[in-house]
What does this fold into?
Amino acid sequence: MRIRSLSIAAAAVLALGAAACTQAEQNKAEADASAAAADATAAAEHAGDAAATAVDSAADATAAAATDAAAATSNAADKAGTAIKDGAVDAAAATEKAAAEARAKLEKH
It folds into this structure.
């Protein structure tokens, strides 16, 4: 009986030791999981911040490109308007000159 009791006591001590080790491992695993979750949360927040910054930068670049395109279009329209006006003035002057020359020829004859 004594050997049996000693065996049971030894098994109990070993089981308690294993359970304690298992609990320590569980505690460590839980701490590691918590740290990993915190790291993942921080990484997700950083990624979100980076994405927001990228969106803001893209919006700024788009706005700047639209402003540049509008300015270029306006300049082109101004140049086209000036060219049309100059062409009209030149055409009117040429018409007046041709009319004056025609009048002079008619008056001679």
Q: What stands out?
A: Residues 9-14 have pLDDT under 50 and may be disordered. The helical segments are 2-108.
